[in-house]
Amino acid sequence: MEKQKLMAILGPTATGKSELAVLLAKALNGEVISADSAQVYRGLDIGSAKISEGEKQGIRHHLLDIASPKTDYNVGLFQRDAQAAIEEIAARGKLPILCGGSGLYVNAVINSNYQLGKETPQPLQRKELLAMEAEKGEGFLYAMVREKFPNRAAKIHPHDYQRILRALEMTEDITADRENNWESPYALSLYGLTMDREALYRRIENRVELMFAKGLVEEVRALLKAGCKEDGNAMSALGYKEILPYLSGDRDLQETKELLKKSTRHFAKRQLTWFRRDPRIIWFDVLTDGGNQSIADKIILLEKRLSS
């Protein structure tokens, strides 16, 4: 049976992935599927750098604003929803284009061996787990993860309870062997964007300043007022958790800006490390390859050659 075609635009934050995906969707009769763990939430707009309606240029985007920030969306749910979106887009004769920088979310879709739990997180179950921790002593839940999923435990800090609880929701471990198994259920075209690190860091710093100018602090304050929990997945996202100490008076505005810039630089570095492991990705340098329109033209030419 012939595999469904799937294109993906990957890479670190602030490299212009969303713009490139729109250019390709316009040229190749495609629709975009967002692969961003923060942009799934309604109301997380400024801090997640969510694409605006104008920037979409009429291209339909999927898996944006699909979850309440009061709930805890996870990678298993994303895998289910992305697979459904791919099928729906393809059924209408269009090209699905996955676009984003959340590496685990991307790999859960493009790699055959990422079979994750699909269950919706259960607040009651989480409360029971935390009660067990309180009864058994600090470190009990982390020990459970280490016993059940040793490979994931090695990547989780023993005090990172959000990731510990998420790990306990999974039905299967993601081992190093699985991460390096490149079999896919799709006929893939993977393209990555990168750029000089110093130039990327300048972009990140400018983006952070723009976020604050657009009202990032007010956005976070409004989300909290609407009932979002500080320890929920939405408020744990990059661009949101850094604002909480400022709102509580524990950090001033300039310190908050510098913290977010630093956190985003580190995040971009981790993203690049994650995607560099995948030998299937064809990389383009945003600066030396002439910008997104030039890169889109090159990708279109490559795709024509592949289909001929």
Keywords:
single chain, 308 residues, alpha/beta, Rossmann fold, Histone, subunit A, 2 domains, six-stranded parallel β-sheet, 14 helices, 6 strands, 50% helix, 10% strand
Based on the coordinates given, report the CATH architecture of the largest domain.
3-Layer(aba) Sandwich
Our count of helices gives 14
Task: Report mean pLDDT, rounded to a whole number.
Answer: 90
**Count the strands?**
6
Radius of gyration: 20 Å
The largest β sheet comes out as:
6 strands, parallel
**Highest CATH level, the class of the largest domain:** Alpha Beta
* Class by SSE composition: alpha/beta
Low-confidence stretches: 171-178
What is CATH's topology name of the largest domain? Rossmann fold
The CATH homology group name of the largest domain = P-loop containing nucleotide triphosphate hydrolases
State the distance separating the first and last CA atoms.
19 Å
Shape, please? Answer: globular
Helix content: 40-55%
What's the domain count? Answer: 2
Read across the widest sheet, the strand sequence of neighbours is: 3-2-4-1-5-6
Question: Secondary-structure blueprint of this entry?
Answer:
Layout (H helix, E strand, L loop, with lengths): L3 E7 L6 H12 L1 E5 L18 H4 L4 E2 L12 H17 L3 E5 L3 H8 L12 H14 L3 H9 L1 H4 L7 H9 L6 H4 L6 E9 L2 H18 L1 H10 L18 H4 L5 H24 L5 E4 L5 H17 L1
Parallel strand pairs: 1-4, 1-5, 2-3, 2-4, 5-6
